[in-house]
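To the team - adenosine-5'-diphosphate complex, inputs and output below.
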Amino acid sequence: MGAEQSVPAGVEVQPAAPATAAPSNQPDGAQAEASSSQQGPPTPSALVLVGPSGVGKGTLAKRLLDGAPDRFGFSVSHTTRPPRPNEQHGVHYYYTTKEQFAKEIGEGKFLEYAEVHGNLYGTSVAAVREVLETGRVCILDIDVQGARAMRKSGLQGIYVFIAPPSLEDLANRLAGRGTETVEQITRRLHNAKQEIESINEKGLYDYLLINDDLDEALKRLTAIAGRAALGLGPEPGMVPERVVLEDAPLPDIRALTEQQQQQQAAAAAASSADGAAPASQPVEAAPAQAAPAPESSHAPEAAAPAASAAPQANGAVVSAASAAADQQGMEGVPPGFEKWQGKVALVTGASSGIGWATCEALALAGMRVVAVARRKDRLEELQRHMHAMGVPLVNFLPVVCDITKEAEVATLPKIVAKRWPESGVDVLINNAGMSRNDASLFEGNIGSWVEMLSTNVLGTCMMTRAVVQDMKRRNSYGHIINMIGLSGHRIPDGPQGGGFYCATKSAVKTITEGLRQEARGAKLPLRVSGISPGVVETEFFAVRAFGDADATRKATSAFKCLQPVDVADAVMWCLSCPDHMEVNDIVVRPTEQLI
Ligand SMILES: Nc1nc2c(ncn2[C@@H]2O[C@H](COP(=O)(O)OP(=O)(O)O)[C@@H](O)[C@H]2O)c(=O)[nH]1
Ligand SMILES: Nc1ncnc2c1ncn2[C@@H]1O[C@H](COP(=O)(O)OP(=O)(O)O)[C@@H](O)[C@H]1O
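Output:
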């Protein structure tokens, strides 16, 4: 069902085009090349984006808006659908009830409204006016019915239909977004076919834009939006005379899910056939290259295809974030943490211990998690663990990367952007760190010194640099947490040769404070924290003893030590603090630990 209204008084729209206007994609029906013949500054018009759910309208609109907020504004619609975890009232939509929506229809509040995929959506007069009055192009993201109604209402603008390269791609994107259940995705795909048919309605759209490569699509849309900014009409002939739809059956989202499960099982079988690498001998990542290494050699994508969806027990695809939103006060989501739901956290040293526990806590609380480690088999195991915990694999990205290799670190933001094009790393947990027991200052193994310096100090710095550069590029600053360790504060085993390791950790402490000061100096809202745990029961001791599995037991049997999850809890608390509060260092010991 769709509805349209005549333009309510007070909205400044351009002279109404009659509902029966000649198709504007025909030369004689094109809007006048308005401002070229007018005096004064151009009058920006609307840019109406239409296309099936999951095609990338929101992503493209956000990129346009972020790129030039002074030229473009978004018409925030009203909807009766519940907010997704990373959506904000007044930013993505005004969320309302059916009753209120009905009341406001009666009051003539909407330029148009429609029922789409079972929910009501509407464009209010105020939403469009607010943007146009500031002299910016008003971007609308509306459905086909809304576009028809807008054409009739006379809102002058450029109407762009955004199509997917194929229904298969669309299905993958919808599944990859992880915000809908299997049933909801199936319904959206079913509707997509009809929506795509609307390309053939003469005069409805001015442009057909296929969103295949996101950057290419953005380039084309930016050019089209530029015309809207100048108040120019569309170029003629930008929609083909007739679009013939491939007669392909609708992709079956449940089958896609099953396919993904099979891929996972195959990957698991392959990894056990290879034989697991011993803990101290990580699977080698692709050799570092001057140019970024191929991404496929880093991310074990076979086990987690970019657009995969993990089934829940009930067969639904629900992101941990939406599950968290559904169950308020859910265990594992500290108060204040909601702001991170749907955002991306990158954790180094994710293959065991604190890194593993932190990945789990972040993912269960609704973050997208990039788990970085050298050991591919351990990452695959973590992935299976995440799956078993009910974390949708679309929210999990394992990356085999050696943080001491500059070229590998440099590829990480690109790998993240490839998986989640509209995102980047919002939270960095610099957890990877190691020690060796042959590093005395009298007669230490220089190789062990180099290893500790490279991992604990340079690795932390290179990761920080890569992520901060990416945050700068996106103009979006989050939180960096460094695992300092109690050894950054004192030397517990100096006589036994532990001084060098502690020196690297006290460097991390200083670097954490230096980073904080740099952020303040640059007036960036980046927050920086350190966490300094005492003895934690992890593989740390086995690595220190060059793979002696018994070393951990020996080092942790004197008293009840901290558990990785205790430290993950500290990470969660750091992140949950209000924006005005920056936790700089948390020192935490097992109760019985003396020094
Ligand atoms: N007619 C109309 N459609 C809208 C409006 N706001 C959003 N829509 C459309 O409603 C559909 C569902 O939107 P949404 O729930 O955000 O899901 P998504 O498109 O899958 O992200 C999309 O086709 C939107 O373009 C509106 O104000 N009016
Ligand atoms: N060209 C593209 N290639 C791959 N993925 C894309 C592309 N454009 C968008 N996406 C992804 O597809 C998903 C759906 O995009 P979204 O903007 O939410 O769609 P819509 O607003 O049209 O429903 C998102 O996860 C987005 O990152």
